[in-house]
Design brief:
Elements lengths: L1 H25 L4 H21 L2 H4 L2 H8 L1 H6 L4 H8 L4 H11 L5 H20 L2 H29 L6 H54 L1 H5 L1
């Protein structure tokens, strides 16, 4: 029974692979750059999921501790938190380290230092988004090029002695490249919107936390 199920599963997998290959083969030469574009799009999406994970941007535990930094500082229990921040394992840690490095100075000086560091962190948050923008633009255009190429093949087959095989091949090329181009672009558009929204939310949270941290690190606050 198990052997039969394994054989059935293997047969289905082979059928899927064969169907995918036939789809790509019928699409013509433009399927090659489209396949490359799809790989780039998937790689960019995976990269952004990893780079925007809580551990890399704003770990939950560190977020709680930074939010209570003023209370920890007044009770002299901030040493362990400062050591954790200085490791720089996340965007929040690196920005908080910039504020703590200038601890005791006027708040304007601390804010200036944090803003300078924040520009670099924002650039990191947006890294990879440009690749998705390119894929979203290029994939449908490549699909349209394939469509135009297929239409040329169709019109060439329309003659007194019509080559029905050439016409069928042109139709397949025109439709398959269009479908493939849109199939690449649509998930990338969805992922792009999700990542942009997530970056906006993370930026707002970081600004709020760092504003409170700058207030807690200013000189008169410490002396007081």
């Amino acid at each position: 029974m198990l052997e039969t199920l394994m054989q059935t599963s293997a047969g289905q997998s082979t059928g899927i692979v064969q169907a995918a290959w036939d789809f790509l083969h019928k699409g013509g030469i433009f399927m090659i750059p489209l396949s490359f574009t799809s790989v780039v799009g998937v790689a960019a999406i995976v990269y952004k999921f990893l780079s925007l994970s809580p551990a890399r941007v704003m770990p939950a535990e560190l977020e709680k501790q930074v939010a209570t930094f003023a209370d920890l500082a007044h009770s002299g229990r901030e040493v362990s938190l400062v050591k954790e921040i200085e490791k720089g394992g996340s965007a929040l840690a690196r920005l908080a380290a910039s504020a703590i490095k200038h601890r005791g100075k006027p708040q304007s000086d601390i804010a200036t230092a944090v803003e300078s560091a924040a520009r670099m962190e924002v650039a990191r948050l947006y890294s990879g988004i440009g690749v998705l923008d390119i894929v979203i633009t290029v994939a449908p255009l490549l699909g349209l090029l394939g469509t135009a190429s297929g239409l040329v093949t169709i019109f060439q087959g329309l003659s007194d002695a019509a080559d029905h095989l050439a016409i069928a091949r042109g139709i397949a090329e025109a439709l398959n490249t269009t479908i493939f181009g849109l199939a690449i672009a649509v998930p990338c558009v969805i992922a792009h919107g999700y990542f942009m929204r997530r970056i906006e939310l993370l930026t707002v949270k970081l600004e709020s936390l760092l504003a409170d941290l700058c207030e807690a690190c200013r000189g008169d606050s410490i002396n007081g």
